[in-house]
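Feature request disguised as a bug report, sorry. It would help if multi-protein outputs had a clear separator. Right now it looks like this:
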Amino acid sequence: MKKIILLLLSVFIINIFAITVQEKKQIFLSKVLPVVQKVYADNLKNARYVHPISITLAQAAMESGWGTSRFFREANNIFGVWSYDAKGPRIAAKQKRQGKTIWLKKYNSLEESVQAYYKTISRKRVYAKFRELNAQGVNVYELVKELRMYSEKRDVYAQELAQIIRFNKFTQYDVTKATSKASQ
């Protein structure tokens, strides 16, 4: 049975890398978009902080390699979130940094990963300006500049997020205040 599962997994992994970029993006969106939309809607109902879906999708795409990263596949870790809790569920990166193992959180589901992501952005002091500008309704291309601390790439990271949003027309998934009020 184990051999069959491994064979199926290897075929699945080979097929992921043998498909076109457009197909990879479609598969990614079919898996991630419904989860992001659900968590977004749940957060709206509970009056929790949320930001435009386009930004969430761009970060998910970038951090997970459009859903092809090992952390996405094996740990439901969409956003490349590191783990510092030795007792919590986690997965080791294959490469070490300065001789130290890097650990990434392991989530039970994609939904749990998205919930943790929104919680991180809504609570960490480093994203205070991001939250402030989001509350003011600043456009996504200005807003992503305040996520530069999410990555070691800093300003380049923010520029890449903006490019992903623009190129993939992710703003089509954003919920306007008028839309969210109408659905309540």
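(second protein starts here, but nothing in the output says so)
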Amino acid sequence: MAVKLRLRRMGKKKQPIYKVVAADARSPRDGKILEAIGLYNPLTKPHTINIDEDRALYWLGVGAQPTDTVKSLLTQNGILLKRELMGRGLSEEQVEAEISNWAKMREAKLNTSSEKKKQSKKAVAKQAEAKKADTEVKAKEVETKIEETVVTEKPEIKDNNSNGSTAEVKGTTSEEKTNE
């Protein structure tokens, strides 16, 4: 029998809460389960993950395959790291030391990402204004360069006679102008 570690949906409509369960791979999502090993609530800020570490390690040890989402949850709790370290043959003390280092690094990473999110809207607005001003200055420079390179004189047409029989174009050379 193939066992999977997966989520079982519970809760009300549009308010899901999931149980992390060990179930036969052939059973439906909300069907018969072998054991419930945890709870996952994605609606809280930050989301809540409660997984029984010993039972998760047991099921992984007997060959249960986690789904992608459950694998992510196990990774966030450090359970997969602990399993890997135990598989290398490290002692309990070494495993606990590695996991505590991992937890400290993870906490530091979460703090830096939360600080970036807390960046004030004013600073973001100032950066946007600076970029907009730079683009406007560049656009004006391009316009002036275009105007300098493309300086054209429009020919003016003068009528010698009021009847309009001959016309002279000023600014251009013509045979009529040289004859006079």
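Even a blank line would do. Unrelated, but nice: Residues 68 and 124 are 36 Å apart (CA to CA).
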